[in-house]
Amino acid sequence: MEDWRRIDIDALEPENHLSKQDLVPDLPPTALDTPPYVSDQKTKNLHTETVFEVLASIKNNHNINEFPTFVSQLSSDQQDTLIKYIYKIMSTNYGAKHGALLLSWFEKTVDVTGMGPVVRFYSDRRTV
Question: Could you tell me where the Low complexity compositional bias lies (predicted)?
């Protein structure tokens, strides 16, 4: 019965083992890794809706000031793909309803990457 005094209860606290980086999801890189460059429009629309849901969930669960953290974790190809999806989602009905969300993502992405992805979006013939 004397051993209970030797137990380090602070080591058992779950908050001591989690860091803020552990809570950052890997969904943005995964969703932007391999965009479907196919002719099937249903596949493209489904993937676009998935990317929109990922962006919306990040907005709902994190502060807007953390967006640059997510964007800076992406490779340059993924950042280009993110801009493509932002533009594509803006042209949809559900994108028109959530314009503030998309504009905040666009603003933070351009703050991190500069205008390069926007120029590449306009010059690239491959559409998402």
Answer: 22-36
Q: Return all residues near 112 (Cβ < 8 A) that are at least 6 apart.
A: 68, 71, 72, 79
Q: pLDDT tens-digit profile of 26-63? A: 667 888 888 888 889 999 999 999 999 999 988 888 88
Q: Classify 14 as helix, strand or coil.
A: helix
Are residues 71 and 112 in contact, defined by beta-carbon separation less than 8 angstroms? yes
Instruction: Please say whether the beta carbons of 56 and 105 come within 8 A.
Output: no
The model's pTM is 0.78
The alpha-helical segments, DSSP class H, found in 4-98 are 27-33, 41-61, 67-72, 76-90, 93-97
